[in-house]
Amino acid sequence: MSKKLRVTVWNEYRHEKKPGKVAEVYPKGIHEAIAEDLRAQSDMEVRTATLDEPEHGLSDAVLDATDVLVWWGHMAHKEVEDTIAAKVRDRVLNKGMGLVVLHSAHMSKPFLLLMGTSGALKWREDGLKEILWVTKPGHPIVKDINDHFVLEHEEMYGEHFDIPEPDELVLLSWFAGGEVFRSGCTWKRGAGSVFYFRPGHETFPTYYDKNVRSVIANGCRWAAPQGAPNVTYWKYESILGK
Amino acid sequence: MSKKLRVTVWNEYRHEKKPGKVAEVYPKGIHEAIAEDLRAQSDMEVRTATLDEPEHGLSDAVLDATDVLVWWGHMAHKEVEDTIAAKVRDRVLNKGMGLVVLHSAHMSKPFLLLMGTSGALKWREDGLKEILWVTKPGHPIVKDINDHFVLEHEEMYGEHFDIPEPDELVLLSWFAGGEVFRSGCTWKRGAGSVFYFRPGHETFPTYYDKNVRSVIANGCRWAAPQGAPNVTYWKYESILGK
Amino acid sequence: MSKKLRVTVWNEYRHEKKPGKVAEVYPKGIHEAIAEDLRAQSDMEVRTATLDEPEHGLSDAVLDATDVLVWWGHMAHKEVEDTIAAKVRDRVLNKGMGLVVLHSAHMSKPFLLLMGTSGALKWREDGLKEILWVTKPGHPIVKDINDHFVLEHEEMYGEHFDIPEPDELVLLSWFAGGEVFRSGCTWKRGAGSVFYFRPGHETFPTYYDKNVRSVIANGCRWAAPQGAPNVTYWKYESILGK
Amino acid sequence: MSKKLRVTVWNEYRHEKKPGKVAEVYPKGIHEAIAEDLRAQSDMEVRTATLDEPEHGLSDAVLDATDVLVWWGHMAHKEVEDTIAAKVRDRVLNKGMGLVVLHSAHMSKPFLLLMGTSGALKWREDGLKEILWVTKPGHPIVKDINDHFVLEHEEMYGEHFDIPEPDELVLLSWFAGGEVFRSGCTWKRGAGSVFYFRPGHETFPTYYDKNVRSVIANGCRWAAPQGAPNVTYWKYESILGK
After folding, report:
1. Which chains touch D (3 or more CB pairs under 8 A)?
2. Exposed site from A10, A82, A216, B8, fewest CB < 10 Å?
């Protein structure tokens, strides 16, 4: 493909505006930490959008120019307008826009609309070790990973994670406190592709990690649209000649 | 299991109240045609509920006494209250209530909430032949079917059918006009089971067909809840002793 | 179902015949430890079979009287006759016989024939803690389990586990040494059902554990055949009237 | 990707050597008809191999230089050496070589080894119409297809087709005689990708059809290896520091 992949990184961008740990770790916002690495990819064109912009930064013009949308949200899921969330869902289903859902966005409106489940899970902010194991070697999302990688300090997420059975389970997490989690999951929905990737608590420098960055960049490439499909729906005449 | 399976057959029940073909075919309503056969099963206890009853006939008391909900709707999907549709979804996810979705209920609110897709498809009311082929011999839903069965007159539904890839594809339809359709599909969602079964246009006597009745009865048994799960969600202490 | 489920527990039965740890833990053989609990189930009829019996104890008469076959093997996989392994596979595909594959039987011939992958994994005999987490609450295989259970001493199995993506992932394991594993997996193959369940190293008393026993008994029930399918294959006349 | 995709088209090449219909339709062999179109793709490098060459044309050197193997076979499946079939399977599992399986190769050794099922189906050489419907719009394999395409004359293949539930069902066939078939199916096995595509009876000019050619070329691209995985198997030391 000679055309660049157009990625929009969306962030709630609330935690980082208040003084404290999050602002220290991500002074320009989580979206900028993610976008920084994606901008360094020669095959990508990157923009960002945040909750408090008009239309949450997701106007039709922006979405028209978005191949893959990366989503980070946490405390303000409910402030996302239903119409915007539905628009994101419809772009995935009908236009094949890719959606990369990060960490606490397991409770975001677009993700829950596309999954149909509650997204519930266990969590604990203990900052202990997480080890991510590859369950699908040879999958493009883990192209640059050996068979595991380690994050020294992360929030714990534990099973049961209430999602539909993933089409593909790519990564599993081990946590020092005794839990496990399906941390890299893919689903097709309509013409589009959805990738959920677990790591990324706001108080840890996870989005500067080399392996995490590889997985996100690979996930964007994997979720690239394959061209809007050309399907006729509803009332239909038989194609058999009479 | 000595306890009977408690099935509630829900019907929009609008077509049948107007004089015409539908009222002739289903004088007591589609729900009664379906319920009649289920009542004849020795392992089932059957009730019905319809749109125009208070709470659409789906009070908490009724849902508490429902193991599997069968759903038929067509022209009045939008009149189903969002709160009732959400309640049905939550019973499936959290309590493991089974949901058997029939024919035009591919556009019903509870089904779309659980799937996350548009449910769109092709259709044509030509009343020609449909042949249903078993793609999963040995599956409990097709226990009493050989490897296909025929409906002489049915409405056509054609692909693309916008659903998540089924966990199991049990039946495929052939239509005389040249189309095919995924007609028997299963999904797990949360603790519950969802079965979509295509046949059943209101102007044809489909719900009196022996094979259709077998599939619906088998589908109810397959979708039976396995007991409400005992899962802890949200904030969680490590179970590792210190 | 009034008829009892006919379960045959197959064991390599070599480790236990030599003096040492295994013989101490399983003096009558691993098969007897497993069968003991299944015999206590009111809905099951249980027999055992072992490698060194004629036809490995799996004559046609025995297989004809077997609804579900439980398989434990480890050091002598290669001594299983190819014809017997193929017979087991064919019974699963064509007759819907259930197959419950335990622990080191991930390398057994019948399992590999049905999967088509190498079955490779990581392992370490450290005897440390394993925690099994339910990823599919409401699934019949974990009917009597809360949302996890603990085995104080087990061998470690780690990802990547080279299996086809499971139809359903029911249990995930956490190991004290840092690994994770897909420990409860289901697949449909032909008319039959296959359940792989990880725990059960020969030097630990795993098959006396209450939760392990529940999962095995539930797994046998889940894998019960649904009646041999009635499918016509090969040359076929059109069913459309002329 | 600047590097070209290295495709090897394998053909049994027996039918075409005898005078008759097949030799008329495919005078240079089915492999050359397929290769002709793939050679016209700017991103591919194509070679062919046939049964009667030494090592069936699949020496280690050839396989080392093969990213994706396309396989057509029919009457001589049994003449393929077991060691060669096993080598193909192992390249798929361990090196991520893609495998595109065409028409009657549903009974070929490499395919059956990777699937674990019998591959059985119904068939009839009636030369009537086949219509292929897209069930996964937006999938790269159907990139250049609208929502269906027609083959005026083909052999019929009908369900039940004894395969593991496909990871993705991409195309469904309708046949004029009343049957349906899962005609475009994908599976991941180990590090590799397998695509089965139904059309292509030796007496019809199917492999000159524009849409069939698109699907095969797209299928090769979809099945491209993602780099040999770097996984440690077997005995494993804990990565947790002591």
Report:
1. A, B, C
2. A82
User: Which CATH code fits B5-117+183-222?
Assistant: 3.40.50.880
Say whether C147 and A159 touch across the interface (CB within 8 A). Answer: yes
In angstroms, the CA B171 to CA B153 distance is 18
pLDDT (mean) for D169-173: 98
Residues in D touching B182 (Cβ below 8 Å): 135, 169, 172
Alpha-carbon radius of gyration of chain B: 18
Nearest-by-CA chain A residue for B160: A231
Beta carbons of A194 and A99 less than 8 angstroms apart: yes
Give the confidence band of B2 by pLDDT, cuts at 50, 70, 90. Answer: low
pLDDT band at A229 (very low <50, low <70, confident <90, very high): confident
What is the total residue count of chain D? Answer: 242
B-proximal residues of D, 159-198, CB under 8 Å: 159-161, 165, 168-169, 172-175, 178-180, 182
Shortest Cα–Cα distance, B90 to chain A (Å): 8
The correct CATH number of D5-116+184-222 out of 3.40.50.880, 3.40.50.720, 3.90.1300.10, 3.30.1490.20 is 3.40.50.880
Look at residues D212, D209, D176, D178 and name the one whose alpha carbon lies nearest to residue D197: D212
Cα–Cα distance for residue pair D115/D103, rounded to 1 Å = 15
- Contact between D236 and C164 using a beta-carbon 8 Å cutoff: no
Over residues B225-239, the mean pLDDT reads: 86
Give the fold, CATH level 3, of C5-117+182-222. Rossmann fold (3.40.50)
Residue A1 has pLDDT above 60, yes or no: no
Lowest mean pLDDT among C21-25, C176-180, C233-237, D107-111: C233-237
A216: phi then psi, degrees, rounded to nearest 5: -65, -45
| Tens-place pLDDT, residues C215-238 | 999 999 999 998 877 888 988 888
For chain C, give the mean pLDDT.
95
What are the boundaries of each domain within chain C? 5-117+182-222
DSSP A188: E
Q: Which ipTM score applies to this complex?
A: 0.94
- Does A152 touch chain C if contact means CB atoms closer than 8 Å? no
| Residues of A whose CB is below 8 A from C142 | none
Q: A-chain residues within 8 Å CB-CB of D239?
A: 131, 148, 150
